[in-house]
Amino acid sequence: MAASKDKLATYRARRDLDRSPEPAGKVGKKKTSGGRTFVIHKHAASHLHYDVRLAIDGVLKSWAVPKGPSRNPKDKRLAIVTDDHPMAYGRFEGVIPEGSYGAGTVMIWDKGTYRNIKKEKGRLVPMHACYQRGTIEIFFNGKKLQGAYALVRTTLHDDNWLLIKMRDDYVSYKPAISDSVSAVSGRTMKAITSDAKHKKTAKRSKR
Predict the structure, then answer these.
(1) Cα separation of 161 and 76, whole Å?
(2) Closest CA to 130 of 159, 157, 150
(3) Residue 186 belongs to what H/E stretch?
(4) pLDDT digits (tens, 9 = 90+) for 14-27
(5) Beta bridge partners of 82
(6) How many beta carbons lie within 10 A of that of residue 166, not counting itself?
(7) Smallest Cα–Cα separation from 93: which of 51, 132, 62?
(8) Can you list the alpha helix ranges (DSSP code H) found in the chain?
(9) How many domains does one find in the chain?
(10) Short-list 12, 200, 196, CA closest to 89
(11) In whole angstroms, what is the distance from residue 130 CA to residue 118 CA?
């Protein structure tokens, strides 16, 4: 039990969860018939970036990807490891208040399931082993992102990985993936920010 709690220790230590709307959550297991859960957040913190989160061993393993995912196999996107997040974070969309860790607007840019496709000698390599070895190969089935991708740890630094589109029928050489609205709420970043302000004002007026 203690080992499970440790997975989210860094996440909770960095946040005042009484002040931030982010979920405290817990370590759990969430797997659907279509595969494991993934979510990609568009996060307007001090620098706009995308957070790629994969459900592995009861938490969302997370990488900050400054330029976001690409459908072009020639693009090697830097992906920096961040702290493990609770599974409940996959439903979080809102605004982290000023003065808090990661302050800024958070959009669910994409969400869905993924399949592990990394094999050795004809057998799938368990996801936790893929993560530890620094070589992940998965197939995304999201609302925006489809197809096979690799996450590969570089030799320069353990926290630095590369997110690369693998060659398949979902390859595209267009400049970017449309990212103007949330995959779940249909809201823009501006609308998410505005809704959070209205909600905060309404709470104050009720006091």
Answers:
(1) 10
(2) 150
(3) none
(4) 999 999 999 998 78
(5) 62
(6) 15
(7) 51
(8) 2-6, 9-13, 127-133, 189-206
(9) 1
(10) 12
(11) 8
Q: Which two tokens stand for residue 140?
A: 């995304």
* Residue 21 lies in domain: 2-206
**Closest listed residue to residue 27, CA positions, set 57, 62, 63:** 57
Considering only CA atoms, which of 109, 108, 113 is closest in space to residue 141?
A: 113
Q: Which amino acid is at 116?
A: N
- Token pair recorded at residue 157: 């630094």
User: What is the per-residue burial (b if ≥16 Cβ within 10 Å, else e) of 58-97?
Assistant: bbbbbbbbeebbbbebeebbebebbbbbbbebbebbbbbe
Q: Considering the entire predicted model, what is its pTM? A: 0.90
Coil/strand/helix, residue 25: coil
Reported as a single tens digit per residue, the pLDDT across 19-77 is: 999 999 878 654 544 469 999 999 999 999 999 999 999 999 999 999 999 999 999 99
